[in-house]
Fold:
Amino acid sequence: MIVCCWSIIVFTPALQRPLEHGADIVIHSATKYLDGQGRCVGGAIVGSEALLGEDIFAFLRTAGPTMSPFNAWVFLKGLETLSLRMRAHCDSAQQMAEWLTQQGAVEHVYYPGLEDHPQHALAKSQQTGFGGIVSFEVKGGQAAAWRLIDATKLFSITANLGDAKSTITHPATTTHHRLTDQQRSQSGISAGLVRLSVGHEDLDDLKGDLQLAQVNTLN
Structure:
């Protein structure tokens, strides 16, 4: 049996190496942190030659879903700063998560770096950092979440993530909108859930942006 690990969103090879934990194939969305600056779209499939050398390589060679030499060069340049960038993402996201737990408009914060996260111990044992994605539920459901998101000025309102620029989105109506209400509930995607991808802006500026947005949600 082949175990596929979608190391797409939070980890990157700078934080977790699934092959060392028994995965056979790892699929990276290089568009996210591997590039890290929103310059190129691409991906990578990593595994043994026995698994990738025939079927997958033959498909790529025949069907042509491969990136251009320039895009490949950009991704290689991104790898040169990946470890430094991921450390910065993790540090800012940890501080952001801890700050959000103290905000009155927030019901719950989801971040594996917080000790009350159900997978905190597992993440700590497998990873060298907890990533740059923070999710939290706001009081007031979807209407309050939308008002908060619309009131931000520094965050880019987009479903993309892993960029140098911080982004904010409402998963229930963007990334997970095609799921049924039951499927979203089973996945923990509530109407009041907001997702942040914490970038490299000044953290106090980002906190101030969210704090102002929280005030606006109460008006």
Observations:
- The radius of gyration is 18 Å.
